[in-house]
Amino acid sequence: MGKFVAQVTLSERIQKEQEFFDKDFLMSYSGLNKLVFSPSSFYKHYVLGQKEDVIDKNMMEGSLIHCLLLKPEDFENQFVVSVQDLPSDNPRSVLHTIFNHYKELKREGDTRESLEEFAEAILDVLKDVNLYQSLKTDGQRIEKMINSKHIAYWEYLKKAEGRTVIDQDIYDFCKAVVEKITSTVSVMDVMGYFSDSFSQLEKYNEIELTKLDPESPFGLRGFIDNLVIDNINKEIRVNDLKKTSKTISQFPDSIEYYNYWIQAAMYKKLVEHVYTSQPKYFGYKITFRFLVVDPFMQIAPIRVSDETLSKWEEETDKLLDEAKYHFETKNFELPYKFIVNNNELVL
What is the rounded CA–CA span in Å between residue 158 and residue 117? Predict the structure, then answer.
């Protein structure tokens, strides 16, 4: 944000571009979604390495549910439970920005450690994000940010470097969600948890699939939450766990808003490349489901029909072609439809 995004000189930009394009890049759903939304943001994030941390409660809960359900052994490495309530989303985002600034300065030899010592930086960030600007004085703005709750959170950030700080309420909610998921027969059955020696199921959690394409400037990459190979029914089930901030009935709106359909289509492509293109799995049907959890702890699988998945794949192919154009021209100034129309869109 603002002055804390490192300024890149022309020579540094040229060097970073060369380093980026000299390497094999694997396009993920999040990467393609960012590129479609804002090519310039993609360029800053992936080419220049200026990554922005966006953390909200729903994302935090989603990550924790994933961990507790799919890889509980990784909990201690990924999360730490705070003994106090977390700051609300906006001040927490400011604190994370200041903390990233603190880490950068510390690497350069800066000895400041307390939150109070970064008052000037806090004021700059608050101005950048237009937070607490209705208050009359800088002193009032600082008072909003430097309080016992925020100082405690700052200390937890330092102790929990590399891990996500959560409060007890979030942990208890997510643990209860996981307990409900594991007791929901329809969901656990879809995820292959009732397999035995007779069912001939292969189950994989948090599995990474990649596809390199020598004819494309980038490959594809995806981390599938849960993949089940049913060798009796010749079916490969791709299950993606989603924590939604809306009710489960409104999840179709979230699919459009967050472009989750891109993720489904890319996962289908990856499964085809890694599995169904191989003789062992020839003729296996690919079935995609979202496993949705809402704030009211309503949990259910939502299956995507073959027709819908094919339609999503066609639309994703168009976006991948647009992405190839950005890579081949090294033009990330504007979205594709603006660039090909001489930087002007006619409605």
Answer: 15
